C-alpha cells in the first residue's frame, strides 16, 4: 500500500516555531510530528511513502532520507503551496492504482489506519465538539454525501479528518478542480465533484486523531503520546537521584544526584540533568540539553541543544532548539485571575482554551539573568532578552528586549 503525505506547508499559525523549520518537523514526545505519522503508516501496512515537500524541505529530507524503517521514501516538490488538490496532483506520476493520502501535521494511529485501509475508497471522519472550525461531513448509510467547509450552522458533529483512501481515478477530478474562494485548489472540492458523479466514499470513524494547529496544541499531543511510553533508562542515574514512573532516558545522558523526575517524561541522548532539579510529568527534553541546579520544568517541550542551567522555571511551554536561559529566567504560565489565556496570532487575539500556557519560544533565543516571560508569549527565533527584562506578547525574530 502506498501513502502520500502532504508536508509542503510552513504552518503560519505555528509561528514563531516555524520560522526555522516546517511544521511537520516540530517535535512531540521527542520525535517530529511527521515521523509519528510515517511510523504509524508503516505499522498499518504501508510499504512506500511519497512526501510532497516545499517549505524548508531539506529538514524533512535530512531526517527521513530515502528509506525509513525499511520503507522507501520518495519526494515530490510542490513549488507553490496552492492547496491540497494541487499538492496531490504534483505527485500524479508516482501514484499507484490505490493509495492513502493524509496531512503530515496530524497524527492518526495504527488501528484507525488499518480500518481505513480496508476500504476501496474512504474518508476518515471524527466527532468533535467544535465542528464549525472544520469541514463538516454528512453521511447516509455509511457513505459520504457532502463536505461543507466551516459552516456557520453545522448539520452534524462529524468532521473530515483529512485522511483519504483513493483510487487513481481521483486524478481526473483533481485536474478539473476550480480555484476556491481561499485561492487554493482543495481536495474537498475534488471529492464533491466525484460524489456528484456517483463515486462512493465510505465514511470511516477514527477513534484517535491529534490535530496540531497552534503551538499550545503541541502540549496536548505531547501529553497523549507520553502517556503511552514505558520506562526505559539507558543513561546513567547517579545515587541520590529519584526517578518515579515511566521515564525514558537516552544513551549518554547523566541524571545527577538530587534530581527528582516524575514520569511520564522523555529525556534524549547526551543530556546533563541536575544536580538538584525537578522535572514534572508530561515533559519531553531533546538531545544534548542541560537542565541544571534549582530548575523546575513542568508539562513542557524542550528541543535539542537547549540549556536551562540554573534557577529557572519553565511551565506549560514549548522551547526551541539551541536556546540558553540565563540564571533566574522564569516563564509564567497562569494569569492572576486564572482565566483562559489569549495569545496574539497574526495580529489577532486567539483563545488557547487553556488556563495554563507559558510561551512558545523559537530557536536560538538567549535570556539574561532574572529575565521574565509573561503568559501567552510568542517569541521569535534569535531574540535576545536582557537581564531583568520582561517579555510579553508576540516578539518578532531577531528582536532585542532590554
UniProtKB/TrEMBL annotation:
Enzymatic reactions: N-acetyl-alpha-D-glucosamine 1-phosphate + UTP + H(+) = UDP-N-acetyl-alpha-D-glucosamine + diphosphate; alpha-D-glucosamine 1-phosphate + acetyl-CoA = N-acetyl-alpha-D-glucosamine 1-phosphate + CoA + H(+)
Enzyme class of the recorded protein, top EC level: transferase
Annotated keywords: Acyltransferase, Multifunctional enzyme, Nucleotidyltransferase, Transferase
Pfam families documented for this protein: GMPPB_C, NTP_transferase
GO molecular function: glucosamine-1-phosphate N-acetyltransferase activity; UDP-N-acetylglucosamine diphosphorylase activity
EC number, UniProt record: 2.3.1.157, 2.7.7.23
Span of domain Nucleotidyl transferase: 3-226
Sequence ranges assigned to domain Mannose-1-phosphate guanyltransferase C-terminal in this UniProt record: 261-346
Pathway(s) annotated for this protein in UniProt: Nucleotide-sugar biosynthesis; UDP-N-acetyl-alpha-D-glucosamine biosynthesis; N-acetyl-alpha-D-glucosamine 1-phosphate from alpha-D-glucosamine 6-phosphate (route II): step 2/2; Nucleotide-sugar biosynthesis; UDP-N-acetyl-alpha-D-glucosamine biosynthesis; UDP-N-acetyl-alpha-D-glucosamine from N-acetyl-alpha-D-glucosamine 1-phosphate: step 1/1
Signal sequence coordinates: none
Any one GO biological process: UDP-N-acetylglucosamine biosynthetic process
PANTHER family: N-ACETYLMURAMATE ALPHA-1-PHOSPHATE URIDYLYLTRANSFERASE, NUCLEOTIDYL TRANSFERASE
Family statement drawn from the similarity comment of this UniProt entry: In the N-terminal section; belongs to the N-acetylglucosamine-1-phosphate uridyltransferase family. In the C-terminal section; belongs to the transferase hexapeptide repeat family.
NCBIfam families attached to this UniProt entry: Arch_glmU
Protein name: Bifunctional protein GlmU
Species of the source: Geoglobus acetivorans
